[in-house]
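Annotators were shown the component list below and the corresponding predicted structure, then asked to write short factual statements about the assembly.
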Amino acid sequence: MSDFANEPVLELRRASERARCSEALAELEPRLPLRVPVAVGGDRRAGESLLSVDPSAPERTVALACGASAGDVDSAVTVASAAQPAWGRRDVRARAALLRDVAAQLRGRHVELAALEVLECAKPWPEASADVAEAIDFCEYYARQAVAMADGPALAQPPGEHNRLIQRPRGVCAVIAPWNFPIAIATGMTAAALVSGNAVCLKPAEQSPGCALAILEAFLAAGLDPRLLALLPGEGEVGAGLVRHPDVATVAFTGSAAVGLEIMAATATPRPGQRGLTRVVAELGGKNCMLVDADADLDDVIPAALASAFGFAGQKCSATSRLLVHARVAAAVTERLCGALDGQRVGPAREFTTDVPAVIEAAARDRIEATVAAAGSSAEVVRVADLPAADGFWVAPTLVLDPPAGAEVREEEIFGPVLSVEPVADMAEACERVAAQRQALTGSVFSRNPATIAAVAAVTPVGNLYVNRGSTGAMVGRQPFGGNRQSGTGAKAGGPGYLSHFCDPVVICEDTTRHGIPA
Amino acid sequence: MSVGSQRGRWATTRGRGGPGTAAGDPALEAEIRRIGRALARASAGGSLRARVEDRGMAWLTHRPELRAALFRTVDVAPACATPAELAAHLHAFLPDGALRGLLERPGLGRVSGPAAEMAVRQMAGRFILAADVPSAAPVLAELWAEGIAGTVDLLGEKTVTPAEGAAYAQRCHEALEALHAGTAGLAARPQLESDAAGPIPRVNLSVKVTALTPLVRAHAPERGREDARRALRELLAHARDLGAHLHVDMESLDSRELILELVLDLLSEPAFSDGPSAGVVLQAYLRDAPAVLERILAWARDPRGGAGRSVPLTVRLVKGAYWDHETIQAAQHSWPSPVWADKAESDRCFEALSRRLIDAHPVLRTAVASHNLRSVAHAVAYAESRGLGPGEVEYQVLRGLGDGLGRALARAGLRSRVYAPVGDIVAGMAYLVRRLLENTANDSFLTARASGTGLARLLTAP
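Structure shown to annotators:
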């Protein structure tokens, strides 16, 4: 793994890089809407039943996709099942090499794909570029991990006995991916499953089929047998069909806790004809807290809080949604946060000057607004005043000051630009509030006392704790990402153990003595 | 003392202004060594306290764990409500060992908080001129009497709200007024107050654009630029009306484009064609610094830019104070580093830029800001070889780090200016820690000098 290095994100502080982005956008726009087929084996079926629009300008259609039918789901799994065994027997180095070719494909289209995310998901440029870079990282990282894992772990080897642990592919993996990291997460789950020897049926989010098509193109351009990766655009019933299919061995899902729990319930009982237990690798929601101690450097806290809470309009499972501030500095933090709030410019993702883009769809906007309205009945709410006049799914960045215990903004994942600011007596109380949650994905703590940092780290239930920095932006190979409790099944994407979730472990123990002849 | 009377002090036997003089020129190198030795002799000494502190700093350089513990204590001091809190931090910072054990003894534990607090104030006192502008005035007057001018930098916390930006601008306006009033009665010092291009203001204020606006975005320089435009324009107008010099500081690369564009843009406005005297900063540790200088020069020669102004733009040439930040940020993003990896490369770049700036005289005014004797001596020797009088190039040092050198430069009849931060210790903490780090960096000139590296080696071409 020594030669793994993260893919550089675009250095957008250089005007020349920003110019490349604008050019890519100008080249992409005339090609819209993209046509996204159902792709099973070598067959492609076009259709227009699904429509993805630009959240910053909803009159613009970014992609027209064919919705997969129940028949498509069934044939996709059948084709994948038939092709998988040979793929699983291929040398792991060949599968790893394919992943690195996929990385090269994505690398060559970095700016173009970032532009696509800007339009299809209203992902601002810096974050869109980070998403493409992360997709490349997943491919490069899992390629190396797969080769390293093939050797198996060191086992005790007494005389006359040989022990080894190998990993077997599980079969067909359903990948059900979200729209918020439209290329990285779908690519990461797909790459992990494929490099481990599985076949994949990919059900992308209905909001980002255009990005999903780019992923399929990258794998096919790298030479993947099309029978090993089906693309099944669609809404919930496509995912449900995959999850219930007896020949789907693994479900890799990233999304909401509600859907994640449904998947676990649906897969708990084997279907007729199903021999194995369906394994669910789930990455679910968060309710992430930033802890601010009295000795924190507030000059660092305020920008980190704004970026973690409002970056990409709070639509990251790692986003900060509660700020737990030591009472001694709570007034100062609140004043500075409120003062800084108006600097958060809401606007189209394509503008480099935008801080907070539109949210993904009208339904999301309405849901967030209802939550904010409810919060306003029991707490003071401070919001950005200026929203763009043009159509778009805008939501004003919002601070909710000291909401009471039990308030929705303190308990539920909002997935929008809303931050609850809560004074606490000390860091022990802050830790108690974190401990009381059922979500445990990310968290951060600002303190300059090593003893405080150690105390928080010792008790935190979260999967990723950040010290003196914001709670978002995990990097492959550096911060393996995933939550605990109801935030996930404990798999760490971009980390050393991730691929094992896509494999069945097999231990082979051989008696190597025969009439005293040593092997 | 006049500029004229000092002309001959470092005069060489070779002719002035000989073209083709460049780095590696043996005559220039000999001159650099001679000037460097003279400056070293003249800057030796200093107060006992400063010498003791320098020895302590040099000692710390080789004890990274202790250095980190002490600087972290300094950093957190203003955020601690009581000495006991500070003591608790100090205890937590220290590596396990004898020193930490000492603090755990009841007697020492009790006094360690107040002692640490005193030590922090002591250190701050060395690098920070005064807590506010009125109390800075007498210190600046003393320096003036020694032949040293000042530029005041108002320390502040990071600006994250518009109100904080407005408060900083207000403090700058008040500082301009206070400095104007405070310098009116000073005795005339011709070598500090004029050069061939004309008068040089007594009042000199260094300002930070990133303190004027909370909207600094590396990927969208236009946001900070437009937000700070009005405030900086008002400061320039105020400086013009008072006959003061306004110097716009440079910080990390993330804000460079915004600052440079804004300053050159504003100075091109007709309202500023006859003032104020103003300046920008060029950071030699940036690999693209030569291209930045060419851009500044092009502006200075453009009739719609600097050529349309009656006062030349001052360029303060520095190595740059954010090397660690730039290096770490680039590494974390897998970007090519924007700064030279090797200190010698920054030093060479500094000398090349010095020559380019001096060659451009009088289109630009040059202020050479370094504590590296070699870098300074090189600029002095080169300016001399180009036939520039000693008052034509300015030399700047930092308060607390280059005091001896600043005095030596003044005594040599050169225009010497000290960069003097003013503000309370809370606001000054980031500045203070940067200076402490600089003072104890392994490859810094000051560290090398304090640890006894021979003068001949220190004056060798980088």
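Statements collected:
1. Chain B is about 55% helix and 10% strand.
2. Confidence is low (pLDDT under 50) at residues 1-21 of chain B.
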